[in-house]
Amino acid sequence: MQLIDGKLVSKEVRKSIAEEVTKIIAKGERAPHLAAVLVGHDGGSETYVANKIKACEEVGFTSTLIRYEDNVTEEELLNKVIELNNNPEIDGFIVQLPLPKHISEEKVTETIDPRKDVDGFHPQNIGRLTLGSPTFVSATPQGMLELLKYYNIATNGKHCVVIGRSNIVGRPMSILLSQKREPGNCTVTVLHSRSENLKEICRQADIIVAAVGVPEFVTADMVKEGAVVLDVGTTRVPSNETKSGWRLKGDVKFDEVSPKCSFITPVPGGVGPMTITSLMINTLKAANKEIYK
Amino acid sequence: MQLIDGKLVSKEVRKSIAEEVTKIIAKGERAPHLAAVLVGHDGGSETYVANKIKACEEVGFTSTLIRYEDNVTEEELLNKVIELNNNPEIDGFIVQLPLPKHISEEKVTETIDPRKDVDGFHPQNIGRLTLGSPTFVSATPQGMLELLKYYNIATNGKHCVVIGRSNIVGRPMSILLSQKREPGNCTVTVLHSRSENLKEICRQADIIVAAVGVPEFVTADMVKEGAVVLDVGTTRVPSNETKSGWRLKGDVKFDEVSPKCSFITPVPGGVGPMTITSLMINTLKAANKEIYK
């Protein structure tokens, strides 16, 4: 059994991004520039955005943080989005979700210029993903593809079972892995809460992507000997052993599943560390105009 | 075994569209209006477009056919698309594919206003389909959903195997059937040319969507007793028995597969007759502003 080390891969990818930024600056061009819009003071969102800004510093990007209080109007926020769309100094930007209830997340997402949508949430970019065209792939699926690449995990012709059909993880991952590319060319099955014979189908999988959001959902009896398991779960469960009073639990019962696996991601330290790195990849692509010419 | 009669369902759906058009006109509003742009004189395209115009007449839509010779420039065609986008008298329009090689189909498709894209080929509409948002679903998948609805075929929790991952049939159908709706909520597996254990996986299917483009690809040994089979194949094969010298062959070996099925679509007369009817459904939705408010 080989542990997939997301921290290591993340570090390697960030190092190579930093090297590219150095080259860009050596050519006399400006560094890639990511802006982040944060509304309110949600603890999770604060941490995510702070880590994104920190990652920018690490790879040499310029970053700008724009803050609003919870009572910002939808119109004000949309005007800011339009301003960022039109600002040639900004290569890409994100509006951290969730937003307060009086603001339509859909409207905000659809107002972002697809060319600057480094989160990959705009329907046009999701359409391009579905069509197999160049696009900004959202953070978690892109992170998993990077892990598969780094560890040279064979996917061609393999049966991948994705548990969960969410728009930001299960759905895009299932599409990406079944497309004609490397990693890809998998036979892909999408399982979800309504699926019959779920365990039986899981047992056929060469690769399992667990993105169901239920701690320890995947047990040893659902996993074939030698399978590759990617665990996207990050549920906070109470714990006496940590200062914070909680710890992260994955969707996979790690202790009993891992001995059967050829490769498995731990939680934490597997898929998680890759997500912000994926945002850095997309920001670099936006700056280089790799997706939209 | 019950034969799924696409001609019958198509007729019923068109009848109900015609009734709605009558009501629209009775209210003093204008009839829905579809425009079709046809470039060159490809025999298949001529027939398709002629049938679309005929279908418009049948349901009471206004239709406009715009023709160009093969040597039309990309710029001229794009200007026409922009003109149609801006023409308030046109509810929806299609540019018949394929286009001559000197014109980028991608550019043309992406220039169509998503609100008038009744073919459902614009990346934004495909993105909405992927996200489960209201959208123009392209003709073949939408036709199959209508057939499943008409025959009250249970899909919830069932295992649907889609053979083929094309952007206009296999991919969207696989996404639609795995989403939380009715028909839908299937466990969906996408199989393709690189899939290992293809026959074995097919045998597990409660529903098979054959969209691989290879005549008689699906044989009796690949089909479970009681399965539902939707055959999207329409390959022309030489025939001595027809005046034209060819006949349509599906992707399913009908004679040996059909006795095992609970429901099956014949070729011709199954999925085929539904496609133009789906375009009529989308045009009505565009006129009623059901997708984009």
What would you note in describing this structure?
Two copies of one chain form a homodimer. Chain A has 293 residues and is an alpha/beta fold. Chain A folds into two domains: 28-113, Leucine Dehydrogenase, chain A, domain 1 (Rossmann fold); 139-273, NAD(P)-binding Rossmann-like Domain (Rossmann fold). Chain A is built from ten helices and eleven strands. Chain A has helices at residues 6-26, 43-59, 74-86, 105-111, 123-131, 139-150, 170-178, 198-202, 254-257, 272-287, and strands at 2-3, 33-39, 62-68, 92-95, 159-163, 187-191, 207-210, 228-231, 235-238, 246-249, 263-264. In chain A, the strands form three sheets. The first copy, chain A, has a six-stranded parallel β-sheet with strand order 1-11-8-7-5-6. A three-stranded parallel β-sheet of chain A has the order 3-2-4, sandwiched between helices. In chain A, strand 2 (33-39), helix 2 and strand 3 (62-68) form a beta-alpha-beta unit. The radius of gyration of chain A is 19 Å and the shape is globular. The mean pLDDT of chain A is 97. Strand 6 of chain A pairs antiparallel with strand 6 of chain B, so a sheet runs across the interface.
